[in-house]
Amino acid sequence: MKDLFSLTNKKVLITGSAQGIGFLLAKGLAEQGADIIINDIIDDRAQHATSQLRDAGFVADACAFDVTNGQAVNNAIADIEENIGAIDVLINNAGIQRRHPFTEFPENEWDAVIDVNQKSVFLVSQAVSRFMVKRQRGKIINICSMQSELGRDTITPYTASKGAVKMLTLVCALNLRVITFRSMALRRVISKLT
Ligand SMILES: NC(=O)c1ccc[n+]([C@@H]2O[C@H](COP(=O)([O-])OP(=O)(O)OC[C@H]3O[C@@H](n4cnc5c(N)ncnc54)[C@H](O)[C@@H]3O)[C@@H](O)[C@H]2O)c1
């Protein structure tokens, strides 16, 4: 039973994990045997969090990149896969909050919240799943919120983004399941022909 939940040698990438919930997830999963890859937008902070895990005896690496920048994301994921190892689990955790009355909400702050909370889930999941699909293996976990279900005043883009992450999770699962199923079916056909 214990082995069923073992994360020994599983590589877990957690976005926005230099602090807060992401860092606590990193510690908790490391305690269960996972090798952690700490991502954050600021390198120093990612390095500091990684050092804290290493000092506690865990396996950890830092990989700083901006989760809203598609090119940076693709480069970083390719670099992790080549130099750190195959990502077994991705946790899309990076998120920001901005508060203003609905009628006053600045467009640039709307964009920032949507980019970090929502677009990044698409970008990082897409980059990581390209490798996972090839391996026919992997897990992606998206951090939603009560605001995926409930509205609240002053946090309009946060609520919109977390609602979207819930549906993004569903559509990702549908897409990736189909790809995996098709590949497996294809494999079976090929193995019968050869
Ligand atoms: N704190 C809560 O009460 C709460 C409740 C429900 C859900 N959540 C969700 O949990 C997640 C973590 O929340 P938290 O409270 O720990 O946040 P936090 O602000 O403590 O940490 C978020 C981290 O994300 C990083 N980050 C921000 N923009 C980034 C970018 N562009 N690229 C890479 N990293 C970036 C930040 O530097 C920071 O270290 C978020 O998705 C949040 O919406 C939080």
Overview of this structure, please?
With 194 residues, this protein is of the alpha/beta class. The protein has a single domain (11-193), classed as 3-Layer(aba) Sandwich (Rossmann fold). It is 55% helix and 10% strand. The chain has five helices and five strands. Helix 1 links the parallel strand 1 and strand 2. Helix 3 (70-83) runs parallel beside helix 4 and helix 4 (107-135) runs parallel beside helix 5 (156-193). It starts with 10 loop residues before the first strand and ends with a helix. 33% of the residues are buried. The mean pLDDT is 94. The structure holds nicotinamide-adenine-dinucleotide. Nicotinamide-adenine-dinucleotide is lined by residues 15-16, 18-22, 39-41, 66-68, 93-96, 116, 143, 145.
Name a few traits of the molecule.
alpha/beta, binds nicotinamide-adenine-dinucleotide, 194 residues, 10% strand, Rossmann fold, 55% helix, 5 helices, globular
Concise account of the structure shown:
By secondary structure, the protein is of the alpha/beta class. Helices cover 55% and strands 10% of the residues.
Break the fold down into its secondary structure elements and pairings.
Elements: E1 11-14, H1 20-31, E2 35-38, H2 43-55, E3 60-62, H3 70-83, E4 89-92, H4 107-135, E5 139-142, H5 156-193
Parallel strand pairs: 1-2, 1-4, 2-3, 4-5
Helix pairs in contact: 3-4, 4-5
The structure holds nicotinamide-adenine-dinucleotide.
